[in-house]
Amino acid sequence: TQLLEQSPQFLSIQEGENLTVYCNSSSVFSSLQWYRQEPGEGPVLLVTVVTGGEVKKLKRLTFQFGDARKDSSLHITAAQPGDTGLYLCAGVSGGGADGLTFGKGTHLIIQP
Amino acid sequence: AAGVIQSPRHLIKEKRETATLKCYPIPRHDTVYWYQQGPGQDPQFLISFYEKMQSDKGSIPDRFSAQQFSDYHSELNMSSLELGDSALYFCASSPRLAGGLETQYFGPGTRLLVL
Question: Which residues in chain A have Cβ-Cβ distances shorter than 8 Å to B106?
C-alpha cells in the first residue's frame, strides 16, 4: 500500500507570511497532483507535476516535485485570507486509470 | 468550461436500502473514477472505468457495484446500506492521454446520509 505523508496537518499563520506544505512518500509516483478542497465540495485541481525536479508556479503558489518523484512541496508566498482551505496532495503510481492515493491534507488558515 | 456532473447532490436513505449515484464526465473524457470521503477523511479510491471496462479497483465494498455506459456516464450502485456508508461520494474524470499520465477532475460530489 502506498502512503503519502502530508505535513503539517494544520497551519494557522498571519496574512503576508510565507508557508510550505510537504508531501512525502517512500514510493515513486508517476505523477503527483495538488488539490484544494472547500467543505462539502469536490477537490479542485491546482497543478499536476510529472517530471522529477519539476517546478511549477501558479501566481503566489510554487509546486515542486522531488528528483526521485517520491515527494513534493507547495510553497505559498505572502499568504492571503483567500488562501484559507484544505490542500490535498495525491499521487498516481502507474499509468492508465489508476486511482489516486491522497495525503491526509493540510488545513490552512490565513488570519487577516 | 464544462465540469463533471453528479446527481443527486444530496441523498438520504435508511439502513438496508439501496442507492444509485450518477456521474457524467467532462465531454471527451473516457475514464471515470469513484471516491468515498468520510467526515474529516481524505478521499478513498473505490473503482475506475476506461471505455466501459473496469480498470482499477480500490477499497470498494462487495455491496457496491459500478458500471460505465456507452455515453461514458457511470453509475455507482450501493446495496444493503449501512450507517458507515454515510459520506461524500465523488466522481472524477480524465481523458486518456499518451503515457497514461492523466489528470483527474472531480465533480461536486453526492452527500449520502444513511439513517
Answer: 35, 42-45
